[in-house]
TrEMBL record, chain A:
Gene name in the database record: mcsB
Entry-linked CDD domains: bacterial_phosphagen_kinase (cd07930)
Function statement: Catalyzes the specific phosphorylation of arginine residues in a large number of proteins. Is part of the bacterial stress response system. Protein arginine phosphorylation has a physiologically important role and is involved in the regulation of many critical cellular processes, such as protein homeostasis, motility, competence, and stringent and stress responses, by regulating gene expression and protein activity.
Family per record: Belongs to the ATP:guanido phosphotransferase family.
UniProt name for this protein: Protein-arginine kinase
Organism: Cytobacillus purgationiresistens
Activity regulation (UniProt): Appears to be allosterically activated by the binding of pArg-containing polypeptides to the pArg-binding pocket localized in the C-terminal domain of McsB.
TrEMBL record, chain B:
Any Pfam family matching the protein: UVR
Keywords carried by this UniProt record: Coiled coil, Kinase, Transferase
Domain of life: Bacteria
Name of the protein this chain belongs to: Protein arginine kinase activator
Residue runs in coiled coils: 134-180
GO MF term list: kinase activity
Domain UVR span(s) in chain numbering: 138-173
Membrane-crossing residue ranges in chain numbering: none
Length: 359, 182
């Protein structure tokens, strides 16, 4: 398969199109956790109950589909190849938990992959909306629409006092997790991030690496999300997160300006060295690739490099993950083979840009 | 130093306890300390993992009850009658078995939830449109009642009377809701 064709299939809308503040905010995500009344939570439910959850969803879809983004497609985890699941996970459409632990796990996907509804994950239903750029409120609106659509036919486990009941008490209340993925290279270079993270934590928000809990910040990409789900309204939670993210955006921008003033030539050198590595290396591992991609993306944002699309970081951060590389290769690869594949995929991707430049 | 309980083995654990402003020092050997397990919140045996730390949040109960109760008295098994998950099981995995667990363990749960959500214990967000009919009304009535209190404090009795009438109307509507079944 040609890279171009593969990419067309592989790239989700959140990776390719550009949203507001997309020089710093890569994507915005809203997740709502819901459970069905009178059915045990996935923690202990029987296979029959698990099947009944899927049946519930299928019934809902057969009455009337949610067609704002084209048809919803139901994917059953048991029917997918391990590699296919891994690819969905690397695109952030499903969680590692759904891939590894779920009984009768499934997911509903829209064609543009901006909406994915996970079934039988930690909760019966998890609605996810993933939008490019800084669009939290927009994502929340869509999540609400889906929530209302599901609720027309499905009775939720809801308590008047403490809200939507979830299997883990850390999600009870709104069941809302709002998160924003940010590229913050200048705050790292100027060593401000170490000071900022504890301050953000004090506001009831969490900062993590790109693949969620426990993962490191590959490629200077951070995920900022709310911790508290009970007591505040969904809108307030989103607003609080938005105001912190806006602050981070302006701090990152001023750090970039400061860097340009104080160490212009060193920065330019670093950007082009990384560009050189990406366009010439024959073997490259994840960490180095992530670091170089971050530099190149910064170089694009700061106009050192022209004519390369900004999406390159978002796309290649996902496409150079082990699952994608193996899918592109059409079979399993050992780690060293992956490093070779990764290098060649990045080189090809950069060449595609050159071709487009040349016309 | 010798353990103050058994007066035999060397004391390896030394700590100070302050209760009602009074300071008491303890010097115990590991064995005697373990017998006091819940009092001193010792994790016996293997190292302390992240998991212990997390579920430790759910396990504060013994410490609250104090050391005066005999350990046997605490053995009453708290269990959800719907899905038969016990509180101990919940404390281990940190996840509930069903929606009813929230009721079954509500006394134990309240301090935990409050700690997780910075002191909050009441949902203030979205309410399901369909099953939420009477909830929407009740929320509205609560709001109006607060308004009423404020109006009375401000001695704006005319407006207060209007608000009171509105509350009555809504309450009637709500009773109709309940009687009507749906």
């Amino acid at each position: 398969m040609s890279l171009e064709k593969f990419m067309n299939q592989a790239v989700s809308s959140w990776m390719s199109s550009e949203g507001p503040d997309s020089d710093i905010v890569l994507s915005s995500r809203i997740r709502l956790a819901r459970n069905i009344k009178q059915v045990n939570f996935p923690t202990i439910f029987s296979n029959e109950e698990a099947k009944s959850v899927i049946q519930n969803i299928e019934d809902r879809m057969s009455k009337s589909s949610f067609d704002k983004f084209g048809d919803l497609e139901l994917l059953l985890m048991d029917e997918l190849q391990p590699l296919q699941k891994r690819v969905l996970m690397e695109k952030h459409l499903i969680s590692p938990h759904l891939v590894e632990n779920a009984n009768y796990g499934a997911c509903l996907l829209t064609e543009n992959e901006e909406v994915s509804i996970m079934i039988n994950e930690e909760d019966h239903i998890r609605i996810q909306c993933l939008f490019p750029g800084f669009q939290l409120s927009e994502a929340l609106d869509v999540a609400y629409e889906i929530d209302d659509w599901l609720e027309e036919e499905i009775d939720y486990a809801f308590d008047e006092k403490i809200g939507y009941l979830t299997s883990c008490p850390t999600n009870v209340g709104t069941g809302l997790r709002a998160s924003v993925m940010m590229h913050l290279p200048a705050l790292i270079m100027t060593q401000q991030m170490n000071r900022i993270i504890p301050a953000i934590n004090q506001l009831g928000l969490v900062v993590r690496g790109i693949f969620g809990e426990g993962s490191e910040a590959l490629g200077n990409i951070f995920q900022v999300s709310n911790q508290i789900t009970l007591g505040k309204s969904e809108e307030d939670i989103a607003e609080d997160l938005k105001s912190v993210v806006s602050q981070l955006i302006s701090q990152e921008r001023s750090a970039r300006e400061a860097l340009e003033k104080t160490s212009n030539i060193q920065l330019e050198d670093r950007v082009f060295r990384s560009y050189g590595t990406l366009s010439n290396s024959r073997v490259i591992e994840t960490k180095e690739a992530a670091r170089c991609l971050s530099d190149v993306r910064l170089g694009i944002d700061m106009n050192y490099i022209q004519g390369i699309s900004k999406n390159i970081l978002n796309e290649l951060m996902v496409l150079t993950q082990p699952g994608f590389l193996q899918q592109y290769a059409g079979g399993p690869l050992r780690p060293f083979e992956r490093d070779i594949r990764r290098a060649s995929l990045i080189r090809e991707r950069l060449k595609m840009e050159d071709k487009e430049l040349g016309g | 130093m010798i353990c103050q309980e058994c007066n035999q083995r060397p004391a390896t654990l030394h700590f100070t306890k302050i209760m009602n402003g009074e300071k008491a020092e303890f010097h115990l050997c590991e064995k005697c300390a373990q017998e006091h397990g819940d009092m001193f919140m010792l994790s016996s045996g293997s190292g302390f993992s992240i998991n212990n730390l997390l579920t430790g949040l759910f396990n504060m109960e013994p410490a609250f009850q104090g050391a005066s109760k005999a350990p046997l008295e605490q053995e009453k098994v708290l269990q959800c009658e719907q899905c038969s998950m016990t509180f101990q099981q919940f404390a281990k995995v940190g996840k509930f078995g069903c929606a009813h667990c929230y009721d079954a363990f509500s006394d134990q749960l309240k301090p935990i939830v409050k700690r997780l959500h910075s002191g909050n214990w009441t949902h203030n967000g979205k309410v399901p449109a369909r099953i939420g009919g009477s909830i929407h009304l009740r929320k509205k009535i609560d709001e109006l009642k607060n308004e009423l209190k404020e109006l009375i404090l401000k001695e704006e009795f005319e407006k207060a009377a209007e608000t009171r009438d509105e509350i009555r109307k809504l309450e009637k509507e709500m009773n109709g809701h309940d009687e009507g079944g749906e």
